User: Fold this.
Amino acid sequence: MAIAIVLILVAVGSVAFHIYSPWWWTEIASNWNQIDLTVVITFWITGIVFVALTLFVAYCVVKFRYSKNRRAEYKPENKKLELWLTILTSLGVIGMLAPGLWVWQQYVSPPPNADEVEIVGQQWQWSFRYPGQDGILGTTDANLVSFDNPFGINPTDPAGQDDILIEGDALHLPLGRPVKFLLRSHDVLHNFFIPQFRAKMDLVPGMVTYFWITPTRTGEFEILCAELCGLGHHQMRGGILIEEEDTFQTWLAEQQTFRQIQQDARLHQNRPVKIATDAPAGKE
Ligand SMILES: [Cu+2]
Assistant:
């Protein structure tokens, strides 16, 4: 009897905890309400099954408790019961999977007018690339990655010259405009995750993965790496700022393009560098 009471308390307590607990998702900042909905559907299905099964076990503990005068009945098969259990289980599994597939299809089908932004992950930082004036991201090659060309942009591709490169700063995006993220990794698996967007995706070395969102409120959010990617994984964080269109454009205009960065690097290389020395003048 005590076990039955404990089981009932577990069922009731779990439901009460779910309803009254202060923890819930952070306020959503993207168009992906449907992803929240899929999680809510899963909560409902697993919640109902959990409560029903726990209460059923409690019922059985009481109903079929030991009695001297009762003998167990051998019943290896029950076609009717098995059919019902199979149907109900299938419905439950379909109910949890089908909405996810439906949303996933949309998640990886960006609208044709979506802006493109590239996200580059490497141990252990995030960098970002905008396509610049021409709206086209230049081609890249991992073999071209160097100190002066950390994105590995192909210098002979005209589309890459005006690409805007952001390193060591937050990703800025305009409010209300759909954006397609193109994800690339320079070393190992990473995962681009912004909880408020309800969106994440793996970055896989050697391929470009993608998904899209539309930011629905301004604010500053955190980019997390959701893939254990090495010793510094925990500090692989970045910032993301959702701004009004004007503020975004002002910021974007202040950023350097690939061409400017290359020119600066060349200038720097050609400039005569004075090195302080203790040697007497004229004797070098
Ligand atoms: Cu990572």
